Amino acid sequence: MASPPPEVAVPVDEEDRETEGEDICAFDIPGKNAPRDRLRRWRQIALVLNASRRFRYTLDLARDEERENLRRIIRAHAQVIRAVFLFKNAGQKALQESYDGTKFESLSQRFPIDLEKLVMLNRDHEAIMLQEVGGVSGLSDLLKSNLDRGVSSNEDELLQRRDIFGANTYPRKKRKSIWRFVFEACQDLTLVILMVAAAISLSLGMATEGVKDGWYDGGSIFFAVFLVIFVTATSDYRQSLQFQHLNEEKQNIQVEVIRGGKRVGASIFDLVVGDVVPLKIGDQVPADGVLISGHSLAIDESSMTGESKIVHKDQKAPMLMSGCKVVDGYGSMLVTGVGTNTEWGTLMANLSEDIGEETPLQVRLNGVATLIGIVGLSVAGVVLVVLWIRYFTGHSNNPDGTTAFVAGTTGAKQGFMGAISIFTVAVTIVVVAVPEGLPLAVTLTLAYSMRKMMRDKALVRRLSSCETMGSATTICSDKTGTLTLNKMTVVEAYLSGTKLNPCDNTGMIFSSVASLLVEGIAQNTAGAVFSPEDGGAAEVAGSPTEKAILSWGLEIGMNFTDVRSKSSVLRVLPFNSVKKRGGVAVQVSDAYVHIHWKGAAELVLASCKSWFSVDGSVHPMSSDKYNELKRFIDDMSMSSLRCIAFAYCTCELSMVPREDLDKWQLPEENLTLLGMVGIKDPCRPGVRDAVQLCSAAGVKVRMVTGDNVETAKAIAFECGILNAKDAASETIIIEGKVFREMSETAREEVADKITVMARSSPNDKLLLVQALKRKGHVVAVTGDGTNDAPALHEADIGLSMGISGTEVAKESSDIIILDDDFTSVVKVVRWGRSVYANIQKFIQFQLTVNVAALVINVVAAVSSGAVPLNAVEVGLFS
Ligand SMILES: Nc1ncnc2c1ncn2[C@@H]1O[C@H](COP(=O)(O)OP(=O)(O)OP(=O)(O)O)[C@@H](O)[C@H]1O
Ligand SMILES: [Ca+2]
């Protein structure tokens, strides 16, 4: 292992002295009045660490390669299976015949398709076999499923499917045994040096001083070495158990599935063949399957194919591969392959789950320990040679003053014993110099803080983030879901230019306007409303925003299924964070199409050319009316509401490009405003204190949100990110668009000052993180949505939210905050700092003891031929 420069030690030595005696406990975040030195010290370490971030990637290279190779093998395997099957079938009679009648050989009489064929079908990405069985509806018949209602939620039914087609789990690779860890611990260079020294010391000791008295030195070194090995091995083993546990937790993804006509939550492991699973942006495709219906569904297949390519899925390319991520749109799929019958399952079953990587700090300290060991070894070698020369040339004396070795007079045995006792001196020098406890101290500290972080609801995906987090200088947090609860309700509404009071009182609104609005709500949504068969209250499903709007729709008298059956959807452009609006085209009659838009209020309002008045008449949008409506939005925003506007326009059916529907860009100008709603999303309790704690500790919290400036500002005030003094300055609050259009250097300049960034696109978040990093910050990013993924990935430490976070966000993060609470982020910073504090202290102690003992022993050995400090005295643990 190359010895990296021991820079870590530099800030430690001089800075720690200044703060000695201060009674701040190790993991305390220094208070506001803490000496600036202390804060500065963290910064310094930060800079040192930051330079080593490259390690994070180089360390992972081997594993990435292994994964890549496996993937290649598995894919090749899949291709071969498919080729063989097609070859076999080519000679046989038409496929269609084998599926009808009673001739097929199926695993069970229940399903007219067997597992083998199903696996082939999944591997056939051109969907030729799918067409042969009659498309997705034909397939669902074969699988005894229903495309709308899914399979029944009956336990027996699910069990039977699991028996026939397998469960959506895969066997885990066998865990490394404790002996493997013992073996690995023994391979440490410093310990090897020590063991050799111990063996020599033991045999020499016993040879010179007799068995009874001679074993002390050698024996005690052995004892210490075994102790170190034992502690290292058990702690590594415990850590591997913990990682395994974390892995299981990480893989146990909660998904939604439609069973018996209802959307229910289930673990990904419980999915069965025949299940109907809704997919939305940010999800992981939970099993192999076929697309039933989808809108703008785009899948990132890089995790399976290895090429980073976004693939659009539609009826022409309906095959979905397990393990891929949904990057845009939504849809639903029919599960056709689970567990090890999928390529993903095979990959996971064959991939070792060992994520016990070495952290940059460990790498460096191992280097330092090895370096010191080598120095000790060479010094001891030099001392040995010097002493031997002195001895054999008759320059060294016995304690009584006589010359120890006189050539020709001293007997061979006595001479040999003299040389041997010199050798013991050298061995002692080595033992004293080797800091075998150093790497162990790091391992123990990291393991300890990881356990503590776990207890504080932070799931550490990457061990190195434990230490990096301690040096974070700024946290860029998204708003929705992290600072706020993500529990949304519509609390204000404006229809036809008047405020509804209360917000569901549509009594005075002209019915044609209300029905247009309801049409927009019911058709232009990624969510759904389910009316239970037993007649209970309707259930709403979807993202929090969609749920809020749908619930409000129900309050103003929307009958979801009714409204949806009155018109047919031609084209959907789902909501995403870049456009900040979503649209749908529905055919309402033989001649007309309605295009409904729903999205960020001020953006939708800007594309409106007219508005509905209370009596149902349409008026052109005058600048007065525009300003009035804009004021409505600002008023709602200032009381921290998220504003969403609904607008629509009509279009003649003849204008619709019927054959090229997929490419049709819906008209989004000249709209007529239908209404606006203000959605309340309360601040998380405790966020204010957490933010204060951070800024007191020198960690600046910034808010980066997709929301409107005023809403962002209001929430920032509410949770203490902004205070009255800040608000006066302009650069502190910036819109994503303004930031985006700056030059790179200008961005770098303002980045430091930005406290709130509003109306940001996913890319703006990324740009901010990059600019801050170039400025020398160590940036932590918290986020939950797919729109946060690029920033999470780029950040020094990415923290995603465990409950509301999407799979894509979690995958891009280093730490998952299990309880979604911003206050847990602060705890992570705290534990990260404790790693540093502990290691700093240990290094200081270690280096003082080892270097001092080495110098004393060398000087004494060369001058008197004996060592004053032996291994037992110095304390082997230093
Ligand atoms: N499902 C939706 N349909 C239509 N408009 C929406 C929907 N969800 C959000 N919006 C609008 O788009 C805006 C921005 O959403 P975006 O996804 O970019 O940010 P966010 O994730 O909600 O916020 P943050 O970045 O703070 O987490 C919201 O302020 C809202 O006005
Ligand atoms: Ca969010």
UniProtKB/TrEMBL annotation:
<feature type="transmembrane region" description="Helical">
    <location>
        <begin position="181"/>
        <end position="202"/>
    </location>
</feature>
<keyword id="KW-0067">ATP-binding</keyword>
<comment type="function">
    <text>Catalyzes the hydrolysis of ATP coupled with the transport of calcium.</text>
</comment>
<dbReference type="InterPro" id="IPR018303">
    <property type="entry name" value="ATPase_P-typ_P_site"/>
</dbReference>
<feature type="region of interest" description="Disordered">
    <location>
        <begin position="1"/>
        <end position="22"/>
    </location>
</feature>
<keyword id="KW-0812">Transmembrane</keyword>
<feature type="transmembrane region" description="Helical">
    <location>
        <begin position="214"/>
        <end position="233"/>
    </location>
</feature>
<dbReference type="GO" id="GO:0005516">
    <property type="term" value="F:calmodulin binding"/>
</dbReference>
<keyword id="KW-0472">Membrane</keyword>
<keyword id="KW-1133">Transmembrane helix</keyword>
<keyword id="KW-0813">Transport</keyword>
<dbReference type="Pfam" id="PF00122">
    <property type="entry name" value="E1-E2_ATPase"/>
</dbReference>
<dbReference type="InterPro" id="IPR036412">
    <property type="entry name" value="HAD-like_sf"/>
</dbReference>
<dbReference type="InterPro" id="IPR004014">
    <property type="entry name" value="ATPase_P-typ_cation-transptr_N"/>
</dbReference>
<feature type="transmembrane region" description="Helical">
    <location>
        <begin position="420"/>
        <end position="448"/>
    </location>
</feature>
<feature type="transmembrane region" description="Helical">
    <location>
        <begin position="368"/>
        <end position="389"/>
    </location>
</feature>
<keyword id="KW-0109">Calcium transport</keyword>
<dbReference type="GO" id="GO:0005388">
    <property type="term" value="F:P-type calcium transporter activity"/>
</dbReference>
<dbReference type="Pfam" id="PF00690">
    <property type="entry name" value="Cation_ATPase_N"/>
</dbReference>
<dbReference type="GO" id="GO:0016887">
    <property type="term" value="F:ATP hydrolysis activity"/>
</dbReference>
<feature type="compositionally biased region" description="Acidic residues">
    <location>
        <begin position="12"/>
        <end position="22"/>
    </location>
</feature>
<keyword id="KW-0112">Calmodulin-binding</keyword>
<dbReference type="Pfam" id="PF12515">
    <property type="entry name" value="CaATP_NAI"/>
</dbReference>
<keyword id="KW-0106">Calcium</keyword>
<dbReference type="InterPro" id="IPR023299">
    <property type="entry name" value="ATPase_P-typ_cyto_dom_N"/>
</dbReference>
<dbReference type="InterPro" id="IPR044492">
    <property type="entry name" value="P_typ_ATPase_HD_dom"/>
</dbReference>
<dbReference type="InterPro" id="IPR059000">
    <property type="entry name" value="ATPase_P-type_domA"/>
</dbReference>
<dbReference type="InterPro" id="IPR001757">
    <property type="entry name" value="P_typ_ATPase"/>
</dbReference>
<dbReference type="InterPro" id="IPR023298">
    <property type="entry name" value="ATPase_P-typ_TM_dom_sf"/>
</dbReference>
<keyword id="KW-1278">Translocase</keyword>
<dbReference type="GO" id="GO:0005524">
    <property type="term" value="F:ATP binding"/>
</dbReference>
<comment type="similarity">
    <text>Belongs to the cation transport ATPase (P-type) (TC 3.A.3) family. Type IIB subfamily.</text>
</comment>
<dbReference type="InterPro" id="IPR024750">
    <property type="entry name" value="Ca_ATPase_N_dom"/>
</dbReference>
<dbReference type="InterPro" id="IPR008250">
    <property type="entry name" value="ATPase_P-typ_transduc_dom_A_sf"/>
</dbReference>
<keyword id="KW-0547">Nucleotide-binding</keyword>
<dbReference type="InterPro" id="IPR006408">
    <property type="entry name" value="P-type_ATPase_IIB"/>
</dbReference>
<feature type="domain" description="Cation-transporting P-type ATPase N-terminal">
    <location>
        <begin position="132"/>
        <end position="206"/>
    </location>
</feature>
<dbReference type="GO" id="GO:0005886">
    <property type="term" value="C:plasma membrane"/>
</dbReference>
<keyword id="KW-0406">Ion transport</keyword>
<keyword id="KW-0460">Magnesium</keyword>
<dbReference type="InterPro" id="IPR023214">
    <property type="entry name" value="HAD_sf"/>
</dbReference>
<protein>
    <recommendedName>
        <fullName>Calcium-transporting ATPase</fullName>
        <ecNumber>7.2.2.10</ecNumber>
    </recommendedName>
</protein>
